[in-house]
Design goal:
By secondary structure, the protein is mainly α. It is built from 7 helices and 2 strands. Helix 5 runs antiparallel to helix 6. The longest helix has 24 residues. The protein is globular. The N and C termini lie close together (10 Å).
Length: 200
């Protein structure tokens, strides 16, 4: 994900902003716990959005507490306590980062390729610790491979690539849900994925 889906803070009430900050810190904590301490540097606003939408559709309970963490050890901050959607989002993020890095190693040149190579061992460890579902991993691998192929072809319209990324986000957001919540997750995932890809 690219980091484009941010809250518009001026329109948030104080309590809503504190809730969002708590979700951000909660996801950071989940990433440290489930995919390794170093994985928290890959945290993005997009994945916080993913976790909140997923949690709302999955019916997760949100509990916020003031806590210290490794990043902010001196002052307690509002943090969302662990729930299934934070854990799931941490594992999904690890897969996305891992396969994006692999694509960079295969396709980029110069400093980007070198940077990806240096980061590769840490990211591989992160993905291994995530222990994500094989079906989920296969979906990520296949979609990102298709995306790379489309980008290499330099199609005059970016729509096909945007559709591929939208379909991937749709699959990830709806995974394990059922009924109306699955359909809603698919729609949100598709349209958000397309918008984010085209913005990038």
């Amino acid at each position: 994900m690219f980091g484009f889906v941010k809250p518009f803070v001026p329109l948030l009430r104080v309590g809503e902003h504190e809730f969002y900050r708590g979700a951000y810190c909660g996801l950071c904590n989940a990433m440290s716990k489930y995919t390794g301490l170093s994985s928290s540097v890959t945290l993005s606003y997009d994945m916080v959005f993913f976790a909140l939408v997923r949690g709302a559709l999955a019916g997760d309970e949100y509990i916020l507490k003031k806590k210290r963490c490794a990043v902010h050890p001196l002052k307690k901050r509002t943090m969302m306590m662990q729930n299934p959607s934070l854990e799931y989002t941490a594992r999904v993020n690890a897969l996305l980062v891992y396969y994006k890095l692999r694509d960079d190693i295969a396709d980029e040149r110069g400093i980007k390729k070198m940077t990806a190579g240096v980061l590769s061992p840490a990211v591989a460890k992160m993905k291994k610790k995530a222990g994500a579902d094989e079906t989920l991993e296969e979906a990520v691998k296949r979609s990102l491979s298709d995306l790379t192929k489309l980008e290499k072809e330099k199609c005059s319209s970016p729509d096909a690539a945007a559709q591929t990324f939208g379909a991937l986000l749709s699959d990830l957001l709806s995974f394990g849900l059922s009924g109306a919540n699955e359909r809603i997750a698919r729609q949100i995932g598709m349209h958000t994925g397309r918008a984010v890809y085209l913005a990038d």
